[in-house]
Amino acid sequence: SLRAGTPAPPPARHLFSDPTETETLRRNLLAWYDKGRRDLPWRTLAATEPDADRRGYAVWVSELMLQQTQVSTVIDYYNRWMQKWPTLQALAQASLEEVNELWAGLGYYSRGKRLQEAARKVVSELAGRMPRTAEDLQKLLPGVGRYTAGAIASISFGQATGVVDGNVVRVLCRLRCIGADSSSPAVIDRLWDMANALVDRSRPGDFNQALMELGATVCTPKAPLCGECPVKQHCQARRRKLFVKPTPVPDVEDCGAGGCALCPPATEPWDSSLGVTNFPRKAAKKQPRVARTATCVLERRGCHGAPEYLIVQRPSSGLLAGLWEFPSLPLAQGLQEEKQREVLADHLRAWTGWPVVAGGLRLIGEVVHIFSHIHQTYVVYSLSLDGDVTLDSALSPSRWVTEEEFHASAVSTAMKKV
Ligand code: SF4
Protein backbone atom coordinates (compact mmCIF):
# COMPACT_ATOMS: atom_id res chain seq x y z
CA SER A 1 0.00 0.00 0.00
CA LEU A 2 0.98 3.64 -0.30
CA ARG A 3 1.37 3.92 3.48
CA ALA A 4 4.16 1.39 3.63
CA GLY A 5 7.82 2.26 3.21
CA THR A 6 9.61 5.49 3.99
CA PRO A 7 8.03 8.74 2.81
CA ALA A 8 9.70 10.49 -0.11
CA PRO A 9 12.16 13.21 0.95
CA PRO A 10 10.67 16.71 0.81
CA PRO A 11 11.49 18.84 -2.25
CA ALA A 12 14.58 21.04 -2.20
CA ARG A 13 12.70 24.26 -1.47
CA HIS A 14 11.90 22.91 2.00
CA LEU A 15 15.49 21.91 2.75
CA PHE A 16 18.96 23.32 3.13
CA SER A 17 20.57 20.88 0.76
CA ASP A 18 23.17 23.12 -0.85
CA PRO A 19 26.32 23.26 1.34
CA THR A 20 27.49 26.51 -0.23
CA GLU A 21 24.21 28.19 0.57
CA THR A 22 24.31 26.89 4.15
CA GLU A 23 27.81 28.32 4.59
CA THR A 24 26.78 31.74 3.29
CA LEU A 25 23.69 31.79 5.46
CA ARG A 26 25.75 31.00 8.59
CA ARG A 27 28.26 33.70 7.74
CA ASN A 28 25.61 36.34 7.05
CA LEU A 29 23.67 35.58 10.19
CA LEU A 30 26.74 35.57 12.46
CA ALA A 31 28.05 38.82 10.96
CA TRP A 32 24.72 40.46 11.68
CA TYR A 33 24.71 39.09 15.22
CA ASP A 34 28.25 40.29 15.89
CA LYS A 35 27.30 43.79 14.86
CA GLY A 36 24.08 44.18 16.79
CA ARG A 37 23.96 41.63 19.62
CA ARG A 38 22.52 42.85 22.87
CA ASP A 39 24.80 42.69 25.89
CA LEU A 40 22.98 40.50 28.34
CA PRO A 41 24.40 39.36 31.67
CA TRP A 42 24.13 35.62 30.87
CA ARG A 43 25.83 36.12 27.51
CA THR A 44 28.73 37.88 29.15
CA LEU A 45 29.00 35.13 31.72
CA ALA A 46 28.81 32.35 29.11
CA ALA A 47 31.60 34.05 27.15
CA THR A 48 33.96 34.84 30.03
CA GLU A 49 33.46 32.28 32.82
CA PRO A 50 36.24 29.66 32.77
CA ASP A 51 34.33 27.11 34.87
CA ALA A 52 32.14 25.00 32.57
CA ASP A 53 29.68 23.96 35.29
CA ARG A 54 29.14 27.54 36.24
CA ARG A 55 28.59 28.49 32.58
CA GLY A 56 26.08 25.70 32.21
CA TYR A 57 24.26 26.76 35.37
CA ALA A 58 24.13 30.41 34.32
CA VAL A 59 22.68 29.63 30.90
CA TRP A 60 20.22 27.20 32.44
CA VAL A 61 18.89 29.86 34.83
CA SER A 62 18.57 32.43 32.05
CA GLU A 63 16.84 30.01 29.68
CA LEU A 64 14.29 29.01 32.29
CA MET A 65 13.56 32.61 33.20
CA LEU A 66 13.24 33.59 29.54
CA GLN A 67 10.56 31.01 28.86
CA GLN A 68 7.34 33.01 28.60
CA THR A 69 8.98 36.17 29.97
CA GLN A 70 10.45 39.24 28.25
CA VAL A 71 14.21 39.83 28.26
CA SER A 72 13.79 43.27 29.86
CA THR A 73 11.89 41.76 32.80
CA VAL A 74 14.28 38.86 33.22
CA ILE A 75 17.51 40.87 33.59
CA ASP A 76 16.81 42.08 37.15
CA TYR A 77 15.55 38.71 38.32
CA TYR A 78 18.53 37.02 36.77
CA ASN A 79 21.03 39.32 38.45
CA ARG A 80 19.39 38.92 41.85
CA TRP A 81 19.26 35.16 41.44
CA MET A 82 22.89 34.81 40.47
CA GLN A 83 23.97 37.07 43.28
CA LYS A 84 22.03 35.05 45.80
CA TRP A 85 22.90 31.62 44.39
CA PRO A 86 26.04 31.94 42.24
CA THR A 87 26.50 28.17 41.93
CA LEU A 88 24.44 25.02 41.71
CA GLN A 89 25.72 24.10 45.16
CA ALA A 90 24.35 27.33 46.63
CA LEU A 91 20.99 26.83 44.93
CA ALA A 92 20.77 23.24 46.15
CA GLN A 93 20.82 24.54 49.72
CA ALA A 94 18.09 27.14 49.26
CA SER A 95 14.60 26.55 50.59
CA LEU A 96 11.62 26.41 48.27
CA GLU A 97 10.23 29.43 50.09
CA GLU A 98 13.28 31.52 49.20
CA VAL A 99 13.12 30.34 45.59
CA ASN A 100 9.44 31.23 45.32
CA GLU A 101 10.06 34.64 46.87
CA LEU A 102 12.71 35.50 44.34
CA TRP A 103 10.65 34.09 41.50
CA ALA A 104 7.45 35.92 42.53
CA GLY A 105 6.34 38.08 39.61
CA LEU A 106 8.00 36.02 36.89
CA GLY A 107 5.00 33.67 36.63
CA TYR A 108 4.92 29.95 35.93
CA TYR A 109 6.30 29.26 39.38
CA SER A 110 6.93 25.61 38.85
CA ARG A 111 9.97 26.61 36.77
CA GLY A 112 11.81 27.91 39.83
CA LYS A 113 10.86 24.90 41.86
CA ARG A 114 11.99 22.47 39.19
CA LEU A 115 15.26 24.28 38.73
CA GLN A 116 15.99 23.96 42.40
CA GLU A 117 15.09 20.27 42.47
CA ALA A 118 17.32 19.67 39.48
CA ALA A 119 20.19 21.55 41.16
CA ARG A 120 19.87 19.23 44.15
CA LYS A 121 20.05 16.27 41.84
CA VAL A 122 23.21 17.51 40.09
CA VAL A 123 24.87 18.07 43.45
CA SER A 124 23.82 14.84 45.10
CA GLU A 125 23.86 12.39 42.18
CA LEU A 126 26.23 13.84 39.60
CA ALA A 127 28.91 15.16 41.97
CA GLY A 128 28.02 18.73 41.03
CA ARG A 129 28.99 18.22 37.40
CA MET A 130 26.57 19.30 34.68
CA PRO A 131 26.07 16.80 31.83
CA ARG A 132 27.92 18.16 28.78
CA THR A 133 25.71 17.19 25.85
CA ALA A 134 22.13 18.01 24.90
CA GLU A 135 21.21 14.30 24.99
CA ASP A 136 22.53 13.81 28.53
CA LEU A 137 21.15 17.08 29.82
CA GLN A 138 17.69 16.12 28.64
CA LYS A 139 18.01 12.59 29.95
CA LEU A 140 19.51 13.34 33.36
CA LEU A 141 18.04 16.65 34.47
CA PRO A 142 14.41 16.79 35.59
CA GLY A 143 12.45 19.54 33.85
CA VAL A 144 15.04 20.07 31.12
CA GLY A 145 13.39 19.58 27.74
CA ARG A 146 14.84 19.38 24.27
CA TYR A 147 15.05 23.13 23.78
CA THR A 148 16.71 23.98 27.11
CA ALA A 149 19.13 21.08 26.71
CA GLY A 150 20.16 22.31 23.25
CA ALA A 151 20.56 25.87 24.46
CA ILE A 152 22.75 24.91 27.44
CA ALA A 153 24.88 22.48 25.41
CA SER A 154 25.48 24.86 22.52
CA ILE A 155 25.91 28.11 24.46
CA SER A 156 27.86 26.83 27.47
CA PHE A 157 29.68 23.78 26.11
CA GLY A 158 30.04 24.55 22.40
CA GLN A 159 28.22 21.45 21.20
CA ALA A 160 27.11 21.83 17.56
CA THR A 161 23.46 21.16 18.23
CA GLY A 162 20.47 23.20 17.12
CA VAL A 163 17.56 24.68 19.06
CA VAL A 164 13.95 25.25 18.07
CA ASP A 165 11.84 27.73 19.98
CA GLY A 166 8.89 29.82 18.77
CA ASN A 167 11.18 32.33 17.08
CA VAL A 168 13.15 29.65 15.27
CA VAL A 169 9.93 27.95 14.12
CA ARG A 170 8.86 31.19 12.51
CA VAL A 171 12.17 31.94 10.82
CA LEU A 172 12.67 28.42 9.48
CA CYS A 173 9.10 28.12 8.22
CA ARG A 174 9.57 31.35 6.31
CA LEU A 175 13.03 30.53 5.01
CA ARG A 176 11.70 27.25 3.63
CA CYS A 177 8.02 27.97 2.91
CA ILE A 178 6.70 25.50 5.43
CA GLY A 179 2.96 26.02 5.64
CA ALA A 180 1.84 22.78 7.23
CA ASP A 181 0.69 23.01 10.86
CA SER A 182 3.87 24.08 12.65
CA SER A 183 2.70 22.62 15.95
CA SER A 184 2.30 19.12 14.53
CA PRO A 185 4.93 16.60 15.67
CA ALA A 186 5.90 15.75 12.09
CA VAL A 187 6.71 19.38 11.24
CA ILE A 188 8.41 20.00 14.58
CA ASP A 189 10.68 17.00 13.92
CA ARG A 190 11.60 18.38 10.50
CA LEU A 191 12.43 21.75 12.04
CA TRP A 192 14.74 20.12 14.59
CA ASP A 193 16.52 18.24 11.82
CA MET A 194 16.87 21.50 9.96
CA ALA A 195 18.18 23.41 12.99
CA ASN A 196 20.73 20.66 13.67
CA ALA A 197 21.88 20.73 10.05
CA LEU A 198 22.11 24.50 9.90
CA VAL A 199 23.88 25.29 13.16
CA ASP A 200 27.36 26.70 12.70
CA ARG A 201 29.98 24.10 13.60
CA SER A 202 32.46 26.43 15.24
CA ARG A 203 30.11 28.92 16.92
CA PRO A 204 26.96 26.93 17.69
CA GLY A 205 25.91 28.97 20.74
CA ASP A 206 26.18 32.27 18.91
CA PHE A 207 24.44 30.87 15.87
CA ASN A 208 21.48 29.63 17.89
CA GLN A 209 21.17 32.90 19.74
CA ALA A 210 21.44 34.78 16.45
CA LEU A 211 18.63 32.76 14.91
CA MET A 212 16.40 33.37 17.93
CA GLU A 213 17.29 37.05 18.01
CA LEU A 214 16.50 37.36 14.32
CA GLY A 215 13.04 35.99 15.02
CA ALA A 216 12.57 38.31 18.00
CA THR A 217 13.72 41.53 16.35
CA VAL A 218 13.56 41.24 12.51
CA CYS A 219 11.50 38.26 11.46
CA THR A 220 8.69 39.20 13.82
CA PRO A 221 5.22 37.60 13.73
CA LYS A 222 3.15 40.37 12.18
CA ALA A 223 5.44 42.88 10.49
CA PRO A 224 8.80 41.32 9.59
CA LEU A 225 11.49 43.74 8.42
CA CYS A 226 12.53 41.77 5.35
CA GLY A 227 14.41 44.70 3.86
CA GLU A 228 16.86 44.66 6.78
CA CYS A 229 17.09 40.91 7.08
CA PRO A 230 20.61 39.45 6.90
CA VAL A 231 19.35 36.18 5.41
CA LYS A 232 16.80 37.56 2.97
CA GLN A 233 18.68 36.15 -0.01
CA HIS A 234 18.04 32.67 1.40
CA CYS A 235 14.38 33.21 2.12
CA GLN A 236 11.90 31.22 0.02
CA ALA A 237 8.88 33.03 1.46
CA ARG A 238 10.30 36.37 0.40
CA ARG A 239 11.21 35.05 -3.01
CA ARG A 240 7.70 33.83 -3.45
CA LYS A 241 6.21 37.12 -2.37
CA LEU A 242 8.42 39.16 -4.70
CA PHE A 243 8.59 37.04 -7.78
CA VAL A 244 5.43 35.03 -8.03
CA LYS A 245 2.31 36.60 -9.47
CA PRO A 246 -0.97 35.69 -7.84
CA THR A 247 -2.03 32.48 -9.50
CA PRO A 248 -5.26 30.57 -9.56
CA VAL A 249 -5.72 27.68 -7.13
CA PRO A 250 -3.98 25.22 -6.96
CA ASP A 251 -0.90 27.36 -6.68
CA VAL A 252 1.84 26.15 -8.98
CA GLU A 253 4.41 27.15 -6.36
CA ASP A 254 3.13 24.52 -3.93
CA CYS A 255 4.59 21.11 -4.31
CA GLY A 256 1.38 19.55 -5.59
CA ALA A 257 -2.18 19.42 -4.39
CA GLY A 258 -2.16 17.64 -1.05
CA GLY A 259 0.97 15.66 -1.89
CA CYS A 260 3.49 17.53 0.29
CA ALA A 261 3.59 17.20 4.06
CA LEU A 262 5.27 20.61 4.45
CA CYS A 263 3.20 22.82 2.14
CA PRO A 264 0.07 24.64 3.27
CA PRO A 265 -2.96 22.33 3.20
CA ALA A 266 -4.79 22.42 -0.15
CA THR A 267 -7.82 23.91 1.62
CA GLU A 268 -5.81 26.93 2.82
CA PRO A 269 -3.59 27.96 -0.08
CA TRP A 270 -1.06 30.80 -0.13
CA ASP A 271 -2.78 34.15 0.42
CA SER A 272 -0.87 36.81 -1.50
CA SER A 273 -2.19 39.61 0.75
CA LEU A 274 -0.31 38.04 3.68
CA GLY A 275 3.08 37.84 1.98
CA VAL A 276 5.74 36.14 4.08
CA THR A 277 3.38 35.97 7.06
CA ASN A 278 1.64 33.09 5.27
CA PHE A 279 4.19 31.15 7.30
CA PRO A 280 4.17 29.67 9.84
CA ARG A 281 0.68 28.26 10.22
CA LYS A 282 -0.82 26.69 13.26
CA ALA A 283 -3.93 24.67 13.83
CA ALA A 284 -6.54 26.61 15.78
CA LYS A 285 -5.64 26.98 19.47
CA LYS A 286 -7.67 25.44 22.24
CA GLN A 287 -9.68 28.01 24.15
CA PRO A 288 -8.48 28.58 27.72
CA ARG A 289 -10.62 27.18 30.50
CA VAL A 290 -12.82 29.75 32.22
CA ALA A 291 -12.75 29.68 36.02
CA ARG A 292 -14.04 31.84 38.88
CA THR A 293 -12.64 32.03 42.37
CA ALA A 294 -13.97 33.87 45.41
CA THR A 295 -11.23 35.46 47.46
CA CYS A 296 -11.42 37.41 50.70
CA VAL A 297 -9.04 40.03 52.01
CA LEU A 298 -9.32 39.57 55.76
CA GLU A 299 -8.02 42.54 57.67
CA ARG A 300 -7.26 43.20 61.32
CA ARG A 301 -5.45 45.88 63.33
CA GLY A 302 -1.96 44.64 64.06
CA CYS A 303 -0.27 45.19 67.41
CA HIS A 304 1.42 48.37 66.11
CA GLY A 305 -1.82 49.78 64.75
CA ALA A 306 -1.03 49.08 61.11
CA PRO A 307 -3.50 46.88 59.27
CA GLU A 308 -2.59 43.25 58.75
CA TYR A 309 -3.92 40.76 56.21
CA LEU A 310 -4.37 37.05 56.35
CA ILE A 311 -2.56 34.93 53.77
CA VAL A 312 -2.65 31.17 53.44
CA GLN A 313 -0.39 28.78 51.63
CA ARG A 314 -1.49 26.76 48.61
CA PRO A 315 -0.86 23.03 48.42
CA SER A 316 2.65 21.96 47.44
CA SER A 317 1.56 20.62 44.05
CA GLY A 318 -0.63 21.85 41.23
CA LEU A 319 -1.15 25.39 39.97
CA LEU A 320 0.87 28.04 41.89
CA ALA A 321 2.20 25.31 44.18
CA GLY A 322 3.35 26.50 47.61
CA LEU A 323 2.57 30.17 46.95
CA TRP A 324 0.64 32.32 49.42
CA GLU A 325 -2.73 33.91 48.71
CA PHE A 326 -5.72 35.52 50.37
CA PRO A 327 -8.15 32.80 51.49
CA SER A 328 -9.75 31.67 48.23
CA LEU A 329 -12.33 29.24 47.04
CA PRO A 330 -13.02 27.99 43.52
CA LEU A 331 -16.61 28.72 42.54
CA ALA A 332 -18.96 26.41 40.67
CA GLN A 333 -20.12 27.63 37.25
CA GLY A 334 -23.09 29.99 37.17
CA LEU A 335 -23.30 30.60 40.91
CA GLN A 336 -25.43 33.64 41.90
CA GLU A 337 -23.73 36.42 43.86
CA GLU A 338 -25.82 35.64 46.94
CA LYS A 339 -24.83 31.99 46.87
CA GLN A 340 -21.19 32.92 46.26
CA ARG A 341 -21.13 34.91 49.48
CA GLU A 342 -22.64 32.07 51.42
CA VAL A 343 -20.09 29.49 50.37
CA LEU A 344 -17.27 31.93 51.03
CA ALA A 345 -18.67 32.80 54.47
CA ASP A 346 -18.95 29.07 55.32
CA HIS A 347 -15.37 28.58 54.28
CA LEU A 348 -14.10 31.50 56.34
CA ARG A 349 -16.10 30.40 59.36
CA ALA A 350 -14.49 26.99 59.29
CA TRP A 351 -11.10 28.58 58.94
CA THR A 352 -11.18 31.35 61.47
CA GLY A 353 -13.73 30.07 63.97
CA TRP A 354 -15.17 33.57 63.72
CA PRO A 355 -18.94 33.96 63.21
CA VAL A 356 -18.64 35.27 59.67
CA VAL A 357 -22.01 36.01 58.05
CA ALA A 358 -22.55 36.34 54.32
CA GLY A 359 -23.98 39.83 54.68
CA GLY A 360 -20.81 41.04 56.42
CA LEU A 361 -18.63 40.42 53.37
CA ARG A 362 -18.05 43.52 51.28
CA LEU A 363 -17.86 42.98 47.53
CA ILE A 364 -14.89 44.96 46.20
CA GLY A 365 -14.85 43.98 42.55
CA GLU A 366 -13.42 41.50 40.11
CA VAL A 367 -9.86 40.86 39.01
CA VAL A 368 -9.13 38.97 35.81
CA HIS A 369 -5.87 37.12 35.41
CA ILE A 370 -4.85 34.94 32.48
CA PHE A 371 -2.71 31.93 33.32
CA SER A 372 -1.28 29.88 30.46
CA HIS A 373 -4.43 27.85 30.01
CA ILE A 374 -6.94 29.36 32.43
CA HIS A 375 -8.95 32.54 32.18
CA GLN A 376 -9.35 33.19 35.89
CA THR A 377 -11.69 35.73 37.46
CA TYR A 378 -11.24 36.50 41.15
CA VAL A 379 -14.34 37.86 42.84
CA VAL A 380 -12.83 39.92 45.62
CA TYR A 381 -14.46 40.48 48.99
CA SER A 382 -13.14 42.11 52.12
CA LEU A 383 -13.88 41.70 55.78
CA SER A 384 -12.51 43.49 58.83
CA LEU A 385 -12.15 41.56 62.05
CA ASP A 386 -11.71 43.22 65.38
CA GLY A 387 -10.63 40.85 68.02
CA ASP A 388 -8.47 37.82 68.25
CA VAL A 389 -8.76 35.11 65.64
CA THR A 390 -7.52 31.57 66.04
CA LEU A 391 -6.83 29.88 62.76
CA ASP A 392 -7.36 26.20 62.30
CA SER A 393 -3.81 25.12 61.53
CA ALA A 394 -5.03 21.72 60.35
CA LEU A 395 -6.51 23.39 57.26
CA SER A 396 -3.34 24.91 55.82
CA PRO A 397 -0.43 27.12 56.90
CA SER A 398 -1.43 30.76 57.30
CA ARG A 399 -0.04 34.02 58.67
CA TRP A 400 -0.91 37.68 59.18
CA VAL A 401 1.22 40.14 57.23
CA THR A 402 1.48 43.89 56.80
CA GLU A 403 1.19 45.31 53.31
CA GLU A 404 4.96 45.50 53.06
CA GLU A 405 5.40 41.91 54.21
CA PHE A 406 2.75 40.85 51.75
CA HIS A 407 4.75 42.24 48.84
CA ALA A 408 7.92 40.53 50.04
CA SER A 409 6.18 37.17 50.38
CA ALA A 410 5.95 34.44 47.78
CA VAL A 411 2.65 35.60 46.33
CA SER A 412 1.53 35.35 42.73
CA THR A 413 1.07 38.30 40.37
CA ALA A 414 -2.66 37.61 40.41
CA MET A 415 -2.76 38.10 44.20
CA LYS A 416 -0.81 41.33 43.91
CA LYS A 417 -3.48 42.54 41.51
CA VAL A 418 -6.13 41.54 44.03
FE1 SF4 B 1 11.93 36.60 7.85
FE2 SF4 B 1 11.69 38.37 5.87
FE3 SF4 B 1 14.11 37.54 6.67
FE4 SF4 B 1 12.50 35.91 5.33
S1 SF4 B 1 13.41 37.80 4.59
S2 SF4 B 1 13.68 35.41 7.17
S3 SF4 B 1 10.51 36.52 6.14
S4 SF4 B 1 12.62 38.72 7.88
TrEMBL record:
Location(s), subcellular: Mitochondrion; Nucleus
Predominant location: mitochondrion
SUPFAM superfamilies named in the record: DNA-glycosylase, Nudix
Keywords associated with the record: 4Fe-4S, DNA damage, DNA repair, Glycosidase, Hydrolase, Iron, Iron-sulfur, Metal-binding, Mitochondrion, Nucleus
GO MF, any single term: oxidized purine DNA binding
Gene Ontology CC: one annotated term: nucleus
Swiss-Prot/TrEMBL catalytic activity: Hydrolyzes free adenine bases from 7,8-dihydro-8-oxoguanine:adenine mismatched double-stranded DNA, leaving an apurinic site
Cofactor annotation: [4Fe-4S] cluster
Ranges annotated as spanning the membrane: none
Protein's recorded name: Adenine DNA glycosylase
